[in-house]
Amino acid sequence: MTIRHAIILSAGQGSRLLPLTQDRPKCLIDFSGRSLIEWQIRALAANGIEGVTVVTGFRSELVEAALARIDAGVAMRTLFNPFYKVADNLGSCWIAREAMDRDFLILNGDTLVSPEIVATLLREARAPITVTVDVKPAYDEDDMKVQREGDRLLAIGKRLPASASNAESIGMLAFRGAGVAIFRDQVEAMMRTPEGTHNWYLKAIDALAPGGVVGTVSIEGMDWAEVDFPQDVAIATALTGRWREAEARRRSA
Fold it and tell me: 76, 100, 104, 247: which could form a disulfide with 5 (CB 3.0–4.6 Å)?
């Protein structure tokens, strides 16, 4: 079955980007004439995504207004996360659990991906849950590190030792078939624990990995960017500038 729905987690402010995010969430930072979230939505729409649920938090009204201006042929709605200041993104997944009623993609609100990357995930995802990964020579403490065996994910987390890591999650996953309920139930179970609101949602993926339900798809060699720190802004601007130039060449061909 082709995935037609996506969830974007965009509740946070992006405090590590201050003062750039003083009055707007980082999903609204402009890159080459489009906000980060518009780049995401257009990449999804180019691959047949028909509906997008955006989890908002900080300055939710600005995100809602920005989404209303995006004309990408995609139905969009927002879900407000009222505890975005005190919870990590497992809480945003819990807020969005009602939208996890069919096959879907999930995308971190700070990840710039091309239509080609989305297409690769949709084409090659085989497991109930699939993590999109990149491969590079070395990994640092801020990377969402992955240990895999073949295409199977064995472990994921920032605290995973670099020596045990052979890939990095880019913050986009696919859920198909049984994977939808498996993930939703895991989110629900973890949110019922005392530490639930302090967890990343990828901790749920790490907990599910031993069951053999989590696979990976590599996009090694493809360009993407995570916007987390001030130095990431220049990298993302250059990347989207190249994408804009490629769009212009296609239109003039």
Answer: 104
